[in-house]
């Protein structure tokens, strides 16, 4: 349903330790209008990732830190609500780094690029925040290009039940490896072995990790 306001979360302070509610400012703004070559996008899904914590800090990192007072950066899946760009039309499903807000302007002079999703969709829409999004790419290229696993090798995955780790383990299985996952509960261990097909899983909170790996 279209909302009359644009709900936004801005970075209000650089977190110290864990993130606190006071590190953000909630704001309600009018929905912006696109200018020439721009589009208005309504967010459907927002991806919340560990790297968000890095973007909030001013440490050296792979992207510029989010500035205090800016809408918090975040990857989204959304739909084009209004288009003044000849390459995008109303109803197109898109992904982009449009931030923690209901609506954003992209393309043109906005500074935000967009990727159009396939039409018709080959899978559920939210897969583009997971296996077919940044987490999937990280798992795929991290394991195959950097790790270069060979058939019969053992692949050990830490944070194995997380968004990236769970995909890494499944790709490693497809590539003929023995896969061992490390995770933080017995329930997650069962999910890895019984549903995702990992060969073994270790609960690092209850066992002796070194002994279990050996
Ligand atoms: N998402 C991406 O596209 C991407 C890209 C590049 C790099 N990375 C990096 O890959 C790693 C995993 O990312 P992810 O997206 O898979 O993360 P995720 O889905 O949030 O999973 C992170 C896992 O870390 C464990 N964990 C340990 N301490 C935690 C804490 N205090 N709070 C929350 N979780 C905690 C949890 O598993 P247990 O309960 O098993 O401990 C959790 O499942 C991160 O270091 C991230 O920066 C991610």
Task: List its salient traits.
single chain; 214 residues; alpha+beta; Quinone Oxidoreductase, Chain A, domain 1; Rossmann fold; 2 domains; five-stranded antiparallel sheet; three-stranded parallel sheet; globular; binds NADP nicotinamide-adenine-dinucleotide phosphate
Give an overview in words.
By secondary structure, this protein is an alpha+beta fold. It has two domains: 5-129, Quinone Oxidoreductase, Chain A, domain 1 (Alpha-Beta Complex); 134-213, 3-Layer(aba) Sandwich (Rossmann fold), CATH 3.40.50.720. It is 22% helix and 27% strand. The strands form three sheets. Strands 6-3-4-5-7 form a five-stranded antiparallel beta sheet, with no helix packed on it. Strands 8-9-10 form a three-stranded parallel beta sheet. Strands 1-2 form a two-stranded antiparallel sheet. The radius of gyration is 20 Å and the shape is globular. The model has no long low-confidence stretch (mean pLDDT 96). Residues 49-51, 134-135, 138, 159, 161-165, 183-184, 188 line the site of NADP nicotinamide-adenine-dinucleotide phosphate (NAP). The site of NADP nicotinamide-adenine-dinucleotide phosphate has 15 residues, from α2 and α3.
């Amino acid at each position: 349903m279209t909302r009359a306001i644009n709900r936004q979360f801005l970075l209000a302070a650089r977190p110290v330790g864990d993130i606190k509610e006071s590190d953000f400012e909630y704001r309600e703004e009018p929905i912006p209008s696109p200018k020439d070559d721009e589009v208005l996008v309504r967010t459907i899904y927002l991806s919340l990732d560990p790297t968000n914590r890095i973007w909030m800090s001013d440490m050296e990192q792979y992207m510029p830190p989010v500035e205090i007072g800016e809408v918090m950066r975040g990857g989204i899946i959304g739909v084009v609500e209004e288009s003044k760009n000849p390459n995008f039309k109303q109803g197109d499903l898109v992904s982009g780094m449009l931030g923690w807000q209901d609506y954003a302007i992209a393309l043109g002079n906005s500074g935000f690029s967009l990727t159009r999703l396939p039409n018709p969709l080959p899978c559920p829409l939210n897969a583009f925040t997971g296996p077919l999004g940044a987490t999937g790419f990280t798992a795929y290229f991290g394991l195959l290009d950097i790790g270069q696993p060979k058939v019969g090798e053992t692949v050990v995955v830490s944070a194995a039940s997380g968004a990236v780790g769970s995909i890494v383990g499944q790709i490693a299985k497809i590539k003929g490896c023995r896969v061992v996952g490390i995770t933080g509960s017995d329930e997650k261990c069962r999910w890895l072995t019984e549903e995702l097909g990992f060969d073994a899983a270790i609960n690092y909170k209850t066992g002796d990790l070194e002994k279990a790996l050996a």
